[in-house]
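anyone seen this seq b4? input:
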Amino acid sequence: MYTIPFGKDHLCFGLPPGMTGTVAVSRRTEPIKDLKGAITQALAGPINSPPLSGFAKPRDRVCIVFTDITRAGADHLLVSAMLKELENAGIPDKQITLLCGVGLHRPSTHKEKEIKLGEEVVDRYRIVDHNAQDSSALIDLGETENGIPLTVNRLAYEADLLISTGIVEPHQFAGYSGGRKTVAIGAAGEAMIAYTHGPKIMDHPGTRLGKIEGNPFHEGVSEAARRAGLKFILNVVQDEQKRPVAVLAGEPDATFRKLVGEARRFYEVPIYRQYDMAVAGVGYPKDVNIYQACRAASYLFFAPVSVVKEGGVIIVPAPTPEGAGEGVGEQRFFEKMRDAITMPSLLKELRESGYPPGAQRAFIMARVLEKADVIIVGSKTPDIVRQVHMIPAADMEQAFHIAAQKTGRQDLDVLIVPHALLTLPSVEFGV
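predicted toks r here
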């Protein structure tokens, strides 16, 4: 039997007769036992930077950008620890703004703010949701050499001290998430999000999962954060159970690169062939909607070498109670997918006409679905799954039956990736 996450619980299943399974999981790493202590230590000895309490001044206006509810991190501990440092530096509460980096996701609810930050912090400090579509709340930072229009939330730019949290993990576009991205995308304007997620960047060979060097998306994010004035980050690397295994603080570039080194050793797992089929686990909160859950399929497809063969099948168990998703970006994804006749025609349209932010997921999934079938298991919104050209299945048994029909074979070679967003299978041929 195999076990993968499903919502806040798990799903157990076996393979039908004739199918063979291989499991790919991240390397075992001991989680941090005393996370509060580790955060305190990281803040006391930051990388390439003095401690916050050493350079923050009582007159400073401070903005802390933190991740939204779609990132299941330890922000409540990270933010509270930084707030303590700022308090020790003599900065009054009224000079501190906590900015939720929602990008083009929906605004966070009051309850979600409490989950992310803790009730005491929510009651005590000013908390603002970023709005990428409010031009009056944005600052124009110019363009990069390759034409990316850079913008950032005015509260972040006008702060005397800009700092952020983040989770360093594999990211399909940035190579690795975290670092500068919380500010550069989470607090960016719609135009920047549109360009960095547009066809020119998405089609670039350097825009790949796990790739940092020569990645135009990563380069744009780095430049945006630099121009915005990001001075300090506190980031974690997490295991498949969302438990931090590394935490570092300090100057954004050096801290991020050191954490990427930690993340590579943890997430990147060698496999020795492509497979007929993959089962990609997601889990809460990413599997609350199709927009987020289908990342599991695209992560495996856009690994440095696709995990599945052309004509293969990717199964993603996900309850998706919010359907396609409720945010602006999620709805744009849904509309593009729903209105598409075929995946090649959708790709042609999007390459020729471009697309607004959020619809990049339609572009990415069209590239996946052009070469493979994607089955969503256990969705509470199966009609929406069908509308976005994926296949709903009530359970794993039905999903395997559909896969056998699609491929015309029963003897399928199956890769099971219980935590597909936190595992980067790397195909190493001839090893």
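Residues 237 and 263 are 6 Å apart (CA to CA). The chain has a mean pLDDT of 93. kinda curious what u guys think
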